Amino acid sequence: MRVMITGGGTGGHIYPALSIADELRQRDPSVEIMYVGTERGLESKVVPKAGYTFRTIRVDYFKKKLTLENVKRANKVIKGLNDANKLINEFVPDIIVGTGGYVCGPVVLMGNLKGVKTIVHEQNAIPGKTIKLLSVFVDKIFTSFEESHQYFRQKKKLVYSGNPVRKEFGALEKGQSREAINIGNDKKVIFSVGGSGGAAKVNEMMLELFKDDTLGHVEFHHVTGPRYYDEFKNRVEKLNLERDNVYVHDYLDNIGQYMSASDVMISRSGALTLTEIATMGVPSILIPSPNVAHNHQEYNAKVFEAKGAAVLLREKELDSNVMKHTVNQVISDQEKLLRMSNRSKALSKMDATDIICDQIESLIK
């Protein structure tokens, strides 16, 4: 079996793709997998480390306004189609899997034109432009949220699979995670992160929470993101907030353990993050990024809010008083925490990767 996988730009597109690749390899060690991305995307660093053949194409996204720059980018898309054509001719895949990001457009489209079986996976509640465009051509469309089905016309192609997540997340247990990272079971823990790159607004709100004396019993673990770390640490020092219950990290390789160990998570609401939160049944306070296409993070968060698994705080309405009130209200109510945890867990689909891989094998046969 020869499988070409493409998707990139953010971890939300890359890690589900790698989960699919890992499962296919586990099922059949002889499977041949080629991952197609871009030179400057995050995938160029992550995929080779995961042990997969990685190749690149030339492609770029279009800006909303009609500009000369878009003409140049259109030329790059044509080059991307040619690059994709060469890679498909070289690798001769049995199927092509697209997980989003503009890089997967030329690869999946060219595969379809050449008669290769193609599938796409949409992580968000609001489909991205690339996946929506490709949905017309592909054999199957996999979704992480049933709420996204209303945006697709090709209803017969739709499969509600959930979002593939690394299997180690499902195996994490709160007590074991706390022991591994040296957190006592008698403590309330808030874990906060602004996405893989960090988020200025989340960092600002965490500083306000560190100042709140009513939260002195809470242990904070906050990930700033590498680009914000030095500035954030300096502010913590200047405000005399270096306490034995405040831990600041620039980045964490074992982020799953910290998520599992927490009583409440404060986070952006990217699809992959929400999948990991649900897998471990963590109550969450979600601050959607307003700087994403179609405001999809807010729609993702609304699904969790509607199910009682999370509290949604819109960035434009957020200040220190709102943040402190919300956190105190959630962290001090044990019944609420248990209820949110159960409802979060109910949103998880641990068989997402199996559903997609079963369909891949079926389409090839």
Question: What does this protein structure show overall?
Answer:
By secondary structure, the chain is α/β, with parallel strands linked by helices. It has two domains: 2-165 and 350-364, Rossmann fold, CATH 3.40.50.2000; 168-346, Glycogen Phosphorylase B (Rossmann fold, 3-Layer(aba) Sandwich), CATH 3.40.50.2000. Helix content is 45%, strand content 16%. The strands form two sheets. The protein has a seven-stranded parallel β-sheet, sandwiched between helices. It has a six-stranded parallel β-sheet with strand order 10-9-8-11-12-13, with helices on both faces. The radius of gyration is 21 Å and the shape is elongated. The relative contact order is 0.12.
Give the topology, please.
Elements lengths: L1 E5 L4 H17 L4 E6 L5 H7 L3 E4 L11 H24 L3 E4 L5 H10 L3 E6 L6 H6 L5 E4 L14 E3 L6 H5 L2 H7 L7 E6 L6 H12 L6 E6 L5 H10 L7 E4 L5 H7 L2 E4 L3 H10 L3 E3 L9 H11 L3 E3 L7 H12 L2 H13 L5 H13 L1
Parallel strand pairs: 1-2, 1-4, 2-3, 4-5, 5-6, 6-7, 8-9, 8-11, 9-10, 11-12, 12-13
Which characteristics define this entry?
alpha/beta, single chain, 365 residues, Rossmann fold, 7-stranded parallel sheet, 15 helices, 6-stranded parallel sheet, 13 strands, 45% helix
